[in-house]
Amino acid sequence: MPPTPRTNALAALPLAMLASSIAMAQTNQDATTSAHPPKKTTTLAPISVSAPTRVPPGLAPDFPATQVSVTAAQIDATINAVDVEDAARYMPSIFIRKRNMGDTQPVIATRNWGVNSSARTLVYVDDIPISALIADNNTIGAPRWGMVSPDQIDHVDMLYGPYSAAYAGNAMGGVMHIVTRTPDKPEVTIQQTEAIQSYDFYNTRGNYSTSQTSVTAGGRNGKFSWFVGASGLNSFSQPLSYITSGSTPAGTTGTIPALNKVGQTANVLGAGGLLHTRQLNLNGKFAYDITPWLQAAYWVGFWSNHGQSRVQSYLTNAQGAPTYGKSSAFASNDYFVSAHHLMQALSLKTDTKGDFDGSLVITHYDFIKDNQWSPYGVGSNTTFTPNGLLASYGGTNWSTADLQGIWRSQGYSGAHEISVGAHADQYTLANPTYNLTHWQDPSSATSLYAAGRGETTTHALWIQDAWQLAPNWLATIGGRYEKWRASDGFNFSGKTAIYQPGENASDFSPKLTLRWDAAPTWHITASAAKAVRFPTVAELYQLVATGATFTSPNPNLKPERDLSGELAVEHTLDDGFVRASLFQENTRNAMISQTSTLPNYAVPVTFFTNVGAVRNRGIELVADHDNVLVQGLELSGSVTFVDSTILSNDNFVSSTGTTSNGKHVPYVPRWRATAVATYRPTPAWAFTLAGRYSGKQYSTMDNTDNTADVMGSFDTFVVFDLHANYQINEQWSASFGIDNLNNRQYFLYHPFPQRTYVANLKFRL
Fold this sequence. Notes:
InterPro entries: Beta-barrel_TonB, Beta-barrel_TonB_sf, Plug_dom, Plug_dom_sf, TonB-dep_rcpt-like
Domain TonB-dependent receptor plug: 64-175
Organism: Dyella humi
Oligomer: single chain
Signal peptide: 1-25
Domain TonB-dependent receptor-like beta-barrel: 284-741
C-alpha cells in the first residue's frame, strides 16, 4: 500500500516531538493503554502458542516451570509507571531496587536471591539480553532498562528458576522477558509524566520533582514494520546517602548523634547524593518480512545520562559558617556523571509452523563513554581540593550470539518438540581511574590512579525435548554444556601493577520438568535442574574505591554450582487461579561479597569469596481472582517465605570472632508479600490500592547488622501505592497516583523515596 497523506503526517509528528523532547531533556515512561479491561497476572501452561501475525515470535522453547505475566493494559491500570522496571513492581517474589526516578542501578531481587545478585537473573527485551553480566553488583551490574520504551511493552513474563536448557546458569534466580509490540497500522503516542516527592529526614527537607516526556511511533508498510521511541527525563532525587563519622569533627556543631547498622557510633554530618539527572533514551525496532515465514530485524538503542550530585552539610564552625568538618566523605558524594551507551542487535527468524524453525540473534552493547569525576578531598569550610579523580568505564562492552532451532519430529502438534541451540558471549571490562589536575575539568586527567580490566568468554551448547508422554503428562528434558574462560586480567593501584592469572572452567547442567494435569482445573509441576554461574569479569578484576570502602578483586573465584527443585500445585478458577510452590536450592561455592577490616588496609575492604554451601528453601503462595464480591473488583497477591542459610563458609573473615555458619544469607528477606486490589466501576475507570512488604534482611554474613533505620541498614518495610486511571476517549487517557502513600521512611542501604505524587497524560493517534 503506498503511503497516504495521513501516513506521512503521522510519520512527521514523532520527528517534531522527538526534537522537542531532546531540547527539553525530559522524558515520559508509561505502559500501553487499552480500552479493554487489562488481563490479569496468570500462570502460563507450558504449551506452544502461535499468534496470527506476520512477526515471528521468540524462538526460545516454552518455559516448562512456573511463570507469571503482566500485560501492558494491567500496567496502565495498576502502576504509577515512570521507568520500564516499574512494570514488574507487583510480580510475586520480585523486588527491583529503584532508589530514584531514572535510577541507573535498579537491580532485581528474586525469591531466593537478593539485590546484590544482579548476575543471578537474566533480563531480555524480546530475544535481546539487557542483563549486564559484566558484574554482579548494585552499580554497573543492573540491567540496561533504558534500551526499551515503556510504550513498546506488550507484556512482561517472569520465569522462575533455571529449569530451561535455553538459558545460562545465570538464570538460577529467574528470567524476565519484556515482550514488545509492533503496530500493524500507523500509530503515534505522546506522554507527559510529572512527579514530586516530599522528603523530610534528619535536616534535609524539600520537594524533589521529576518531569518526563516521551514519544513513540510505529506502523507497517507492506513487508516493512517499525517502532521507534524517544524519551527525556529531568529528575531531582532525595539524598542517596548520608555522610557519617565515628566522632564529632573538632570545632563544629550540628552533628546528629546516630549509629551504624552494627550499632557503632556513626554520627550524621550531612546528606550526599542529591542527584540531578538528565537522561535521553532513543530506541528503534525495524523488521522486514523476507517471506511470509522469514523475518530479518534490527534493534538499536542509545542511552545518554548526565548528572550532578550535590552535598548538604549540617555542620557549622565556631563562627557559625557552614563547614565540611574535614570529612573526606563529602568529597566522594559531590560528583558529576556523563555517559553514552549504544546497543545494537540483528536477528533472522523463521515461523513456518511446520517441522522446522530456527533463529539467529547477534547483539552488542558498548559503553561509548561512562565517566564520573569528583574532588580528591575537602579543604577549609565548604571547599574541596582543586585536584580530583575520574573513574571511567569507556570501552567496557559485551557481545552475544545465539543460534537456535526447533524440530517437531511428529508435526506442529506432535508429541515431541526438540530444541537445540548454541551460544557465545564475550564481556570486556575497562575501568581505569585517573588523577585530575582540576577536578571539575575531566579533560585535565593525567596519571593513572587505579585500574581494573579483563575479559570473559563463554561458549555453550544445549538441547531440550518437550515430550507429551500422554494426554495429561508433559515431560521437558534437557541439558546445557558451557565452557568459560577469563583472561587479560590487570590491576593497578599506587605503584603496583599486577597481571592476573587466567582461569578456565566447564560444566554440564541437566534439566527435568514433569507436568501432570490431574484434572481440567488442577495442575501439578515438578522441576529439578542444575545451574552453573561463572564469575563475572568485575568480580574477578574490578578495583574501585567508594567513599571509605575499598573494593578488591578476587581472580581466583570458582564457579558456583546450583541444584534447584520446585513442586508447584495450581488450581484454576472461573475468574482466576491459586498456586502454591515449594522450592529448594543448594548452592556450592556461592560467590558473595563481604566487607571486613584486613591487615595492611587503612579502610574496610569489600571482596568476593566463595561461600562453601548455601541453602535456600521456602514456599510461595499466589492468588488472583476477578469480580470478588462485586462486579469489577479484582484481587491478587502473593506471600513468600524463604529460609536462606549459610551451611558452611571457611573463607569468612571476622575481626571480632564471629561466624557466618548457620546465619541467614545476606540480602534475602525471610518474608515478602504483595497485595493488589483494582476496582473498575466502569470500563473507563480503574482504581488500584496496592501494598508491598519486605521482612528483615541482613547485609553482613555474620548477621551482626541489627540496627534499623540508619544509613547502610536494610529495613523491614510496608509501602502502599494508590493509582487511578481514566480512559477519557479513544485517544486520551490520564492517571494519577501516590507511591508510598503511608510515607514509610526506610533504608535499603540508601534512604528510599518518601511519599511521591505521580500524574500522567497520554495521547495516542
